[in-house]
Hints:
By secondary structure, this protein is mainly beta. The chain has helices spanning 3-6, 15-38; strands spanning 71-84, 91-99, 102-112, 120-121, 130-135, 140-150, 155-165, 173-176, 184-195.
Amino acid sequence: MSDDNDKRWYTRLPTISVALVAFLVTLTTLINNVREIGGLKEKKPAVSAAAAPAASAPLAQPAQPKAPTRYSVVLTLEKIEVVNDGTSGSTSWTFDVSAGGQDLFELPSRDYNDAEDTRIATPRTSDPSMGRVTLVPGQEMLVKISGRSGGLISKLSASGTGTLVAERALAPVKVVAADPRDGEFIFHFATAATPQ
């Protein structure tokens, strides 16, 4: 046998052919690696044959509105029901309204009367009767009302609380003295929540 028959087959190919084969193998490997890394590899759909009819539904869902991260809530005093003013005639009371430990407004001294025709008191135009707080969704904030009457004979006090949540109106807040005969009022507020 000749020396040529003992050589491997690829050594008998011209050098250009060997270089071409090596180049093609390298190029194919490079393309496969780029497709895997870059996510270009075709993905087979995960839809089974039974689910094919449902595929006619639109694939793109409309963007859901993003829930607000907080609300600005405005509390406005609408009226005060006077159940008992604390004396036989009219009685002068001052009320402080706070929410979440923050003072909102103070109603200055005014005569309140529990007589049937005058038992509903609305804020005077000169009275501050509005306050603003900030709440996050689901947060509960304590609204506190403290009243005091500085009469000549006796000093009376009354207090009450309510829970404010941005998603619903504030329920009427009952403000009562230790003995309800010394003072009992029901505060009605309007609430307006604005997403921020």
